[in-house]
Write a structure and sequence with these properties.
The protein has one domain: Jelly Rolls, CATH 2.60.120.10. The protein has three helices and 26 strands. The strands form five sheets. Strands 1, 13, 14, 17, 18, 19, 20, 21, 22 and 23 form a ten-stranded antiparallel beta sheet that branches. An eight-stranded mixed beta sheet has the order 2-3-4-11-6-9-12-26. The longest helix has 12 residues. This is Pirin family protein.
Length: 308
């Protein structure tokens, strides 16, 4: 495939250190009304964690969500999840929860270090047992599905395929399709999102052809690389590159170092949004309705979320 069909970088976001929840140290890569016009349908991406439990144990206590999906992916440590209806779960390293908040979820997410006294958890230790590292991605829901039934999907390591491309890259496919292999989550209310964790060796190449017109984002987790094509841009840890709509394929090339990155693609909604903290709707009246529901203890419309 010719170089002129390789996508270029349209926008770079650099992670900013901040504190969220009840005091969790994290890096926010993007997450504002302004940035959402560029990253649509993706609203927010956080890289949270620390080697020091004191910087994350306070967690993300009770808070609401409406009108979005949250995708929580752990690569070190674990996170407990509980909602207001008594549903509970745990996300271990290399596992993921894909939650559709839809009409309303009230929940908490509490990160913890891996327990080395638990035989199963001990097998899942990555690096420092007291360390924590994970990502949370928010995906907008189309106006027609904002008030859909809340849904939980637990995606565990053993059900998530890893494909080697023969050019030095290992691709964990959470959602979407790569080299004729599908990830365990397919759907996304017409957005057809792809979400992959890619590990590249030194002097290797990775190519991917997203669906035409889709937003494509590369987020550097570890190491560095460059984009391919005639307009090369260096990619590194803590940097997100939004790729151009023009061109056909994404090309990433490593030099003398490894590079690990998250790949996210999805169909942009091109809809107006009103954003109030963890609630993202399409009109100001819908935000007012959500806040009134919170005040009147009517926020959770569906008491029995769907589990898939």
């Amino acid at each position: 495939m010719s170089e002129d069909k390789v996508k270029t970088v349209d926008k770079i976001f650099i992670a900013n250190s901040t504190i969220d929840g009840a005091g969790v140290k994290l890096n926010r890569i993007f997450g504002s009304h302004l940035s959402s016009k560029i990253t649509d349908p993706f609203l927010l991406l956080d890289n949270f964690g620390s080697e020091n439990p004191e910087e994350y144990l306070a967690g993300f206590p009770w808070h609401p969500h409406r009108g979005i999906e949250t995708v929580t992916y752990m690569i070190q440590g674990k996170a407990y999840h509980e909602d207001s209806e008594g549903n509970k779960g745990i996300i271990l390293p290399n596992d993921l929860q894909w939650m559709t908040a839809g009409s309303g979820i009230f929940h908490q997410e509490m990160p913890k270090p891996i327990s080395i006294d638990d035989p199963e958890e001990k097998l899942r230790v990555v690096g420092n047992p007291k360390g924590l590292k994970g990502f949370q991605l928010w995906i907008n829901l189309p106006a027609s599905r904002k008030m859909t039934n809340p849904t939980y999907r637990s995606i565990v390591q053993k059900d998530t395929p890893v494909v080697e491309n023969g050019e030095g890259s290992k691709v964990k496919i959470i959602s979407g399709n790569y080299m004729k292999t599908e990830g365990p989550f397919q759907g996304g209310y017409g957005l057809n999102p792809a979400y992959m964790d890619v590990k590249m060796e030194p002097e290797s190449e990775f190519s991917y052809i997203p669906e035409k017109g889709h937003t494509s984002i590369i987020y550097g987790v570890e190491g560095k690389a460059t984009t391919g094509g005639t307009q090369r841009v260096q990619l590194k840890e803590g940097m997100a590159a939004v790729m151009s709509r023009e061109g056909e394929r994404i090309s990433i090339i490593t030099g003398y170092t490894n590079f690990r990155f998250l790949l996210m693609t999805g169909k942009p909604l091109n809809e107006d949004i009103y954003w109030y903290g963890p609630i993202v709707m399409n009109t100001e009246d819908e935000i007012k309705e959500a806040l009134l529901d919170l005040q009147n203890n009517k926020f959770v419309r569906q008491k029995n979320p769907i589990f898939q």
